[in-house]
Specification:
The chain is about 75% helix and about 0% strand. The protein is mainly α and about 250 residues long.
């Protein structure tokens, strides 16, 4: 490392400083989500209809029911908050960057825009993949299970919404794997060799998860497991590039 290259160690913060910074970033994130939720509230009905579309396609003739007087209002609030998270995702990822920035080199801090754009893109891809592939397949499987025992399903609104929102946000987060690996590799916590060593274990785990979440057929399992294996492979390449970059910086 050259003498002119700032060392992140000189910006090391104590535990209380980290906690205060984390509290600040979480508070700002909450404000962004609140603004996004307020902006989305008028469109909550349209958004809820969009979230229910996979259900009605998989459960033909089955209604979604409400079981409490205030349930519709609470559902609109939940949908608005979910929409607020989606709409303000770039700002949320920017706050994540600001939280991690003190531990980065000056040369790395200029990548804030690529980080925000890439993290938003990955999150959007994961959310869309879940909505267009995972939810329809999962709901179709659950409907067939109802048919197999001769029961006509009548599903609560809140149950379906919780499942849809949780899985969409969850898949969006899972698709951030390459960026997570980049940070861990830059920090020296993992290397591409580590990921290669555990590749077979990761593939087995991915297919187990796919088998649990999808109908019991090979095509559906591959539709889910394939992108996750691809993300793992991309993460290996990311870790390799990160380790080479770190080695080059250390040499200079």
């Amino acid at each position: 490392m050259s003498a002119s290259t700032p060392n992140p160690e000189q910006f090391r913060m104590g535990l209380m400083e980290h906690l205060r910074e984390l509290r600040k970033r979480l508070f700002i994130c909450a404000l962004f989500v609140l603004v996004g939720a307020c902006a989305s509230y008028s469109y909550a009905g349209m958004i809820f209809e969009l979230l229910c579309r996979p259900f009605f396609e998989a459960f033909p003739g089955s209604p979604l029911i409400g079981t409490a007087p205030a349930e519709a209002w609470f559902l609109k609030l939940k949908v608005s908050i979910f929409s607020g998270i989606i709409l303000t995702a770039p700002a949320l990822f920017y706050q994540l960057w600001r939280f991690t920035a003190p531990g980065l080199y000056s040369s790395e801090k200029r990548y804030v825009l690529p980080f925000v754009l890439l993290s938003t893109l990955l999150f959007g891809c994961g959310a869309y993949f879940c909505y267009s592939m995972v939810l329809p397949l999962s709901l179709a499987f659950f409907f067939e299970e109802f048919k197999s025992i001769g029961v006509t399903p009548t599903i609560r609104l809140s149950d379906h919404l919780s499942m849809a929102v949780t899985t969409i946000v969850g898949f969006g987060a899972v698709f951030e794997l390459p960026l997570l690996v980049l940070f861990l590799a830059r920090a020296g916590a993992i290397t591409h060799r580590t990921l290669i060593r555990y590749f077979r274990h990761a593939v087995v785990l991915i297919f187990i998860v796919a088998a649990v979440l999808t109908p019991p057929d090979v095509v559906s399992q591959c539709l889910m497991a394939g992108p996750l294996v691809l993300l793992y492979g991309i993460s290996i390449g990311v870790a390799l590039l990160a380790s080479r970059s770190t080695t080059a910086e250390t040499a200079t």
